Amino acid sequence: MSISPHFERCALRSRAAWVAVRGLLLAMLVWAGAGAASAQPVSLGNGVMLTDIERAYVTAHSPVTFCVDPDWWPFEVIDQVGQHVGIGADLLALTAQRVALPLRLHLTRTWEESLVASKAGKCQLMSFLNRTPDREQWLIFSEPLLIDPNVLITREEAPLITDLAALQGKTMALPAGTAMQERLQRDFPGLTIIQTSSETEAMRLVNERKADMTLRSLIVASHTIKKEGWFSLKIAGQVPGYDNLLRIGVLKSEVTLRNLLNKGVATLTSQDRARVIEKHVEIKAITAVVADYTLVKWLATLMAVVGVTSLWWMRKLKVLNAKLKHLSVTDELTGLTNRHGLDKAFQAELERVRRYQRPMTVVLLDIDHFKAVNDDMGHLMGDKVLVDFARLLQAGARQVDTVCRWGGEEFLIICHETPPDQALELAERLLQAVRRHAFACGRPVTASAGVACAVDGDTVESLEARADAALYEAKTRGRDRVCLAPGQSPGLLSDAPVGIKPN
């Protein structure tokens, strides 16, 4: 059984419509009970109708204070300048905007500190959380802002989990104070819970074999595995019914506020949610099977139909983990191969060079004075420069070459079957293309390059080190130029394969 995107969209719209209708009915009952004579709902111009009571609330309580999880990326974090950012942050902001409700962030350092502040009445709402019996003691909840499946994360060598009885007697790492902890302790008393201070720590314990598994959001797990380079982890299964229905939690005394927020939530479309997710996760499907959908959408659909048969589930899990492994070698910003993917390609190419005695050269490039772009114009503009630079490299290199983001503003190209003289020509063409390009920052941008050719006995590290030394020489000579690694000449290995030293 499969749920089509069209059906999903229809379901979301139906749910949203019901929320809007229910909100209006509740508002009418409150109005009648208060004895208001002739108050009529007022439109905000975006389809949202506010009653007199609701408009009075917005006027009297603006801004509304809220608490968040300060370390739950990509859902939400408090950044270095005290701003609330992430998927949950954007969805909350959209919801509040749709009902003209100003918000003010109450700063906390941990999720547990946010819970304490909420219980003490220091924040009127909690931004992005699951509803649990414990939280219902002091909170009422909006309709879901986002539905995200939880998945079981294990080491790669562990078997896929198709029978939930396998959880008994196992250890599971979970961040302290989460909704999942409450439910798991109730549903699986034989499961040992290891509490951690963060999402990352929970997955680190699994990676280090200090816990058998963790149960985390699919979106968060995919992001964390890729970010931390924990490619020995995999998605091993799902606990049915343990999806994250992420809502806004509101103090019990603030019924009008909850009704207002529900009206805002009802305006969120599937397109709104997709745009927000893609903004922060930037994961695209990469095979013909799911070519028209984001990976997140495809995975959500996959998880919705898990359990039809064990065989089907295991087969889909293999596909999912293959996609995750592919994404682990891709730089999120530029779409190029990342450092992890480069190391694999590099090692394979060196082995091919040794076996077939063919030349191979690398070009290491660095954007000149890039720090000044970030300092003067901000990191967003810096990211635009990096993306444009990456596109220039891709366009200028051959299709058979491997273009990689080496780190920060440094990029490396593996030039297959290429002697140094040809690699030098390529580097010069690339630098010329950079000089001519009109970057979004509005100022001239240049780059420096170092070229090194593989020689007998080279390792990945030694070849990278020589290319880095050549790049350093280009920088010290004034930048905006190409230098060949010390001790090599443009004609080295042009006529002689690796392992055969020229006379």
Would you mind describing this structure in some detail?
- The chain folds into three domains: 5-146 and 245-279, Periplasmic binding protein-like II (D-Maltodextrin-Binding Protein, domain 2), CATH 3.40.190; 150-242 and 283-327, Periplasmic binding protein-like II (D-Maltodextrin-Binding Protein, domain 2, 3-Layer(aba) Sandwich), CATH 3.40.190; 339-484, Reverse transcriptase/Diguanylate cyclase domain (Alpha-Beta Plaits, 2-Layer Sandwich).
- Strands 3, 7, 8, 9, 10 and 16 form a six-stranded mixed sheet that branches.
- 41% of the residues are buried.
- It is 44% helix and 18% strand.
- With 503 residues, the chain is an alpha+beta fold.
Provide the fold topology.
Layout: H1 5-34, E1 42-43, E2 49-50, H2 52-61, E3 64-67, E4 71-72, E5 76-78, E6 84-85, H3 87-98, E7 103-105, H4 111-119, E8 125-129, E9 139-141, E10 146-148, E11 150-155, E12 171-175, H5 179-187, E13 192-196, H6 199-207, E14 214-217, H7 218-228, E15 233-237, E16 244-251, H8 255-266, H9 270-281, H10 295-304, H11 310-327, H12 339-356, E17 360-367, H13 370-377, H14 379-396, E18 402-407, E19 410-416, H15 420-436, E20 447-453, H16 460-476, E21 482-484
Parallel strand pairs: 3-7, 3-8, 12-13, 20-21
Antiparallel strand pairs: 1-2, 4-5, 5-6, 8-16, 9-16, 10-16, 11-14, 11-15, 17-19, 17-20, 18-19
